[in-house]
Write a structure and sequence with these properties.
By secondary structure, the chain is mostly helical. The chain has a domain of 49 residues. Helix content is 60%, strand content 5%. It has 3 helices and 2 strands; from the N terminus they run ββααα. A two-stranded antiparallel sheet has the order 1-2. The longest helix is centred in the middle third of the chain and has 28 residues. Bound molecules: zinc ion. The site of zinc ion has 6 residues, from loops.
Length: 78
């Protein structure tokens, strides 16, 4: 049984467009789409960073770093 469904669709790494294997060679990214895709990735990274930062500040290491920063701020230079 043959099927028209192509299982080898891959998202373009640049713009996220879903491409069949035989489309990939000819594919040219739409600059707008590529920009949107990149922004989406950046937003994910930023979200992840904020989560990581909150977790860090709550951790013993994070508290220690804050304590160090606080101590250094009050310590006279020299
Ligand atoms: Zn593309």
């Amino acid at each position: 049984m043959s099927s028209a469904f192509a299982p080898h669709h891959m998202p373009c790494a640049e713009c996220g467009a879903s491409l069949a294997m035989d489309e990939r060679a000819d594919h040219v990214c739409d600059p707008e789409r590529r920009l949107e895709y990149r922004l989406l990735q950046l937003r994910d990274e930023v979200d992840g960073f904020e989560d990581g930062l909150c977790g860090y500040l709550d951790s013993p290491q994070g508290r220690f770093a804050q304590w160090l920063a606080e101590r250094d701020r009050h310590r006279p230079k020299g």
